[in-house]
Amino acid sequence: MTIDGILRDKGVEIITARATDSIEEISRLLHRRRIGAVLICDEDRRPQGILSERDVVRAVALHGAAALMLPAADLMSADIVYCSPDDTVADAMALMTDRRFRHLPVLEGQRLVGVVSIGDLVKRRIEETQAEAEQLKEYIATA
């Protein structure tokens, strides 16, 4: 199964924020949309960074409540790692595990086409495993 299959099933809505948005605003966005990370994009929706719940917690631990007034640009990870729609779920999971992050933007050429989370990938792997088990049961039952 590929990343493209996951995006087709879950949809391709991409939640973004701006580098000038405060951490308080972004925290509200994360909460309201029930997501764990947001892409920080310029006015042309070109990614500049990614900001996760972990980044927010780290900032509050270091700066206290003042962290909420900081702009996203101060906390975001600017070194974004991407995958492609043609990548396999297993390859994306390995990348996320090796690099220790839970959200992976998806690029097709130079165009941002979606974001997958580790939860999306695990869900798909479970579905694949269950389908394989059912196929094996049917095969054994007919043998």
Notes on the protein architecture:
The protein is α+β, with helices and mostly antiparallel strands and 143 residues long. It has a single domain (3-142), classed as CBS-domain. 49% of the residues lie in helices and 18% in strands. It contains six helices and five strands, in the order αβαββαααββα. It has helices spanning 3-10, 23-33, 53-63, 72-75, 89-99, 118-142, and strands at 16-17, 37-41, 47-52, 103-108, 111-117. The strands form two sheets. It has a three-stranded mixed β-sheet. Helix 5 crosses helix 6 (118-142). The two termini are 28 Å apart. The model has no long low-confidence stretch (mean pLDDT 92).
How do the helices and strands line up, and which of them pair or pack?
Blueprint: H1 3-10, E1 16-17, H2 23-33, E2 37-41, E3 47-52, H3 53-63, H4 72-75, H5 89-99, E4 103-108, E5 111-117, H6 118-142
Parallel strand pairs: 1-2
Antiparallel strand pairs: 2-3, 4-5
Percent of residues in helical segments? 40-55%
User: Number of DSSP helices?
Assistant: 6
User: Could you name the CATH class?
Assistant: Alpha Beta
Average pLDDT figure: 92
- Outline, from the CA principal axes? elongated
Largest sheet: 3 strands, mixed
- CATH level-two architecture: Roll
Assigned CATH superfamily: CBS-domain
Q: Low-confidence stretches at least 5 residues in length (pLDDT < 50)?
A: none
Estimate the strand proportion: 15-25%
Distance between the termini: 28 Å
DSSP summary, beta strand count: 5
Order of helices and strands: HEHEEHHHEEH
The total number of structural domains is: 1
Radius of gyration: 18 Å
What is the third-level CATH name, the topology? CBS-domain
Report strand order across the widest sheet: 1-2-3
Briefly note the structural class of the backbone: alpha+beta
